[in-house]
Design brief:
elongated, 5% strand, two-stranded antiparallel ribbon, 403 residues
Amino acid sequence: MEYTPISPFMRPISHVHLRVVERPEASVPGKPVNKWELLRELSKAQAAFGVSERDLTVLQGLLSFFPDDALGGNTEVVVFPSNKAICERLNGMPCSTMRRHLARLVEAGLLMRRDSPNGKRYVRKHGEERVAFGFDLSPLYCRSEEIARAAEAVREAEERVRRLREVVSLMRRDLAALSEFGEEIQPGLGLWDQLRDTAALTARALRRKLSLEDLAAYRVELEAHLDQARNVIDGPETEEMNTNDACFDRHHHSSNKESIDLEPALEKGTVSADARDDDTDAPVADDEVPGTRQVPKIPLHLVLAACPSLKTFYQDDIRHWHQLFDAACHVRPAMGISASAWEEAQRLMGPEQASIVVVAILERFADIRSPGGYLRALTSKAAAGEFSCGPMVMALIGRRSAA
């Protein structure tokens, strides 16, 4: 619904009131409305009604003269303070300024004047009847449902901006990580410097308050850069990785002694850890990992995008690498991967990269005959410095894009 402010030049005042009553949105609410909650809703939707913060400050002062917290019901909603009393309630606001804001509230259809014959504001009783002259708050009450809808529309717009801002922020981080990853596997390309500059400029822009249109433009730009980076990264090295995987899978299907060929621990006569009572998934201590282990440069967000099957078996949020490790520990036994293969992968790859490999194997579970043997083979490649999880993730993304 579009909310167009009523023109501040509408005259006379009685026409303003008629317009408020005749508006289809301004149906009289069926129950009393808390005046302070209504003021907060109006503050949220103030742009839709063409009023400013200072206008609402004056309205707040007028509401403070109404003795009850609730507007509506059978109670007359007219307040009759003098100009002096209103200005004092507004911490000494000049009378001319106060009158100007009152006029804005009347012109916006949120307030109506009830003038006495002599122009004074007062209340007069005739037996059981009570007649008040001053400012009638009933237009505000009659438009309470319209105000609530306008405030909700503003909140929904703010939520859209917040979600899109979060998406742009994630894309910016992915672009920065992909530029570092690309520099590592294909050094010397000027593209990586361009992508880093774009990520830095986007980070600087996100420090400001951006509109929905600005954020949408950044999203389109970042999507184009991410596609460009993926196309470059998903090149010969990834194709080679896919070829190796295919050969390895064919070896799985053609072998008559799969458990011996793909589970070296059994070939050597050692006892598989699956037969032990102690089948723990505790991460390997850092001092057991050869060299200095670093967090993978492939963005976690891309790993999750490449492996959506994980959500079927692990419902908790995954926002950090330790949460991906927990997810891998959770799905590993059901995949038939022995604890010894898992521990060896952690020791030689690091817990994060080993976790990426496990969830990637889960994504291709139907195509891999022996997940445990596959993990051991990739672990051996990692020990020889011949494996990186990045091409595996990019290959999965390529498969999803081609599907």
